[in-house]
Amino acid sequence: MADVLEAELAEAVDAVMNDSPVAVFEQKRDVFEFNMALAAIATVIALATILAVVLDSEVAENLFGSENDGSANSVDATWLEPVYMPRHEECIDTSNGQEEGYEGFGIGYEPSLAIDGEGNMFITAHKDLRWGGEGTPFGPILGGPVDSWYACQDGQMTSWDYWASWFWVSNDGGLTWHHGDNFDPTPGNLANSVVGSVTGGGSECLGDEGDIAVDAENTIYYLDTTLEDNWWHIFSDGGNTYEMGPVCQRMNTMAADDRPWVAAQGDGIVHYLGNSGASPPECTGDSGRYWYYHSENGGSSFTQCYSMPGGWSTIASQRNGSYVYVVQENADTNTGTVQIRISSEYGRGTGITDGTWAAPVELGPRNGNCPEGYPVVNTNEGGTVAVSWADCPVGDTGAWAMYFAISYDYGENWSMWNATPFDSGINMYPFISISEDDVVSIAFYGLDYGQDGAEDGYVSGKNWYLYAAALDTPQENDSWNFQIADPTPLHTVTDYEEANGDVHALHDFFETVLSPDGDWLGIAYQQNIGEHPFEENEEQRYIKFVRADLDV
Predict the structure, then answer these.
(1) Does residue 525 lie in a domain region?
(2) Are residues 218 and 286 in the same domain?
(3) Pure H helices in 114-159
(4) Poorest-confidence range of 78-87, 187-196, 361-370, 457-466?
(5) Chosen domain end from 64, 89, 118
(6) In a domain, 157, yes or no
(7) How many whole angstroms separate alpha carbon 170 and alpha carbon 240?
(8) What is the per-residue pLDDT for 112?
(9) Residue 349, by phi and psi: left (phi above 0), alpha (psi -120 to 50) or beta?
(10) What's the pTM value of the predicted model, to 2 decimals?
(11) What is the domain extent for residue 147?
(12) For position 373, what pLDDT does the model report?
C-alpha cells in the first residue's frame, strides 16, 4: 500500500514541475479519489469488527459470513464417570474365569438402551452363549464339550445370572443400576428354564438378545428373542413393576428372527422389525429378510405376513405422534443406497397390502458393504427425523466414511452430507438420538488410524474408543466435534485381527438416548477386558454406561 501511495505522489510532483495547471488538477483529483476509496474500505473493515465484537455473533455472520459455520452450533459435553452393569451379588463366582476385579460385572455385548418420559433408563444385552458353563448344548457349533447351560450356579463357571437376556434399570439418571422387577437369579441347569417358561415368567424365560421401547404412557416393552420366536416382557413404574403374568408370553412370529428391533407409541401401539436372515415370500408377494409386525393392544397380538425388501434395517417412531420410520439398505448388495420408508398413520394396514407405508425414499450412497453397518434412524415429536450410516468404500480395513441425513418436516425434504470423523480410520455403528429441541447426537465405536501420529492403517496395538458429539439443529455441511467419551480403550487390535482383517471385536451395535429435557446424553456400550475362558482369539465383554451433561 505504501508503494502505491508513493507512486501517486511522485506523479503529482511531476505534474507540478511540468507547470501544467490542468495536469496538476487532474492528479490532485486522482489522489483524492484514491484516498476516499481507501477510507471506504477501512470503514467497512471497522464496521465488521465492531459488529463481530459488540453485536450478536449470529448477526455478524449473516452480514459478512463465517469460515466455521459447522462448529458454531456444537454442544459442549461434560462426561461423568462410566459405570459397569452389575451382577446379582449371590451369583458372583470368583472362580468363573472373569478378570480379577471384574467378577461383579455383567458379561455381554450389543447393548440396547431406552428411556421413558421421566428419565428412567433400561438396558438389555446379548448374553455370552459360550459362557453359560464349561459346556453347551450346542457344543459342536459353539465349541467346547456338550453339556447343559447353567445360570447362577457355583462351580459351573457361568456368567449368567438368569435365563432371560440381561435387563437393567436406572431410576437416577444413570448413576446407579439394578435388575428389573421379576428378573431375579434362576440358579440351576437348563431344565429349570424349560419348566420355568411354563410355570414362571420374567427372568425364567430363556432368551438370547433383545430390544426395548417405551410408549407415550411410559409402558416399557422388552422383547427377548429365542431365535425360533420371541418372548414379551412388559414393565411399568420405571421398570420396577412387572406387568406380565406367571407364564412366558410368546409372540408367535411367522419368520425366525436373529435380531429384534422394537418401537412403541401412543397407548399400546408396538412395532416389531425382525431380521429373519432369509427372505421367505409373504402375503403381498414380496420377499425380504426384515419382517414388520404391528400391534394395537400392547403386544397381545400382532399383524403378520409383511416384509420390507432391503438389507440391514432399523425402526423408530414418534412417542406421541403418528409417524413411524424404517431406514434400510436398499438391498443385500455390495453397493447401493440407503433408503427410508415412512408411515404417517402408525404403520397400520399391512398384510395383503403395504397399508399406510409409502414407497421408500433414497437418502444417500453405499459405496461399499461394511461387515457391520446398520443404518440408524431416530425422530422426535416436532417432525425432525435423522439417519446415519457407515460406509466402507475401500474394504473392511480401509478408510471408512460416515453419512448423516436430516429432515425437519417429517421426511418430506432432506439434507445429506459426509460426516466422516477421521482422515483415515473406522467409524462403526453410528447411532443417533434427538431431543425435542432438535439437539442431535451421534456416537460410534472409532479406530483412528492416525492415533499417535501413525500412518500404517489397521495394525495391532491400536485402540478402539467410544466417540460422541452433539449439534443444535444441524444444517447441511455442519461439522461434528467428535470427542472420546470414555478414556479407557474399548479394545486393542490384536495380531490375529490384523492378520485376518477382523474388525468384529465390538460386535454389531450399541445405543444412546437423550434425556426428556435434552440436557444429558446416555450411552450403553461394550468394553473388552482380558482373555475369554472358552473362546480362542476372543476377549471378555462387559457392558458399561456413560453419561454426558450437555451445555444447552
Answers:
(1) no
(2) yes
(3) 139-142
(4) 187-196
(5) 64
(6) yes
(7) 10
(8) 98
(9) left
(10) 0.87
(11) 105-515
(12) 73
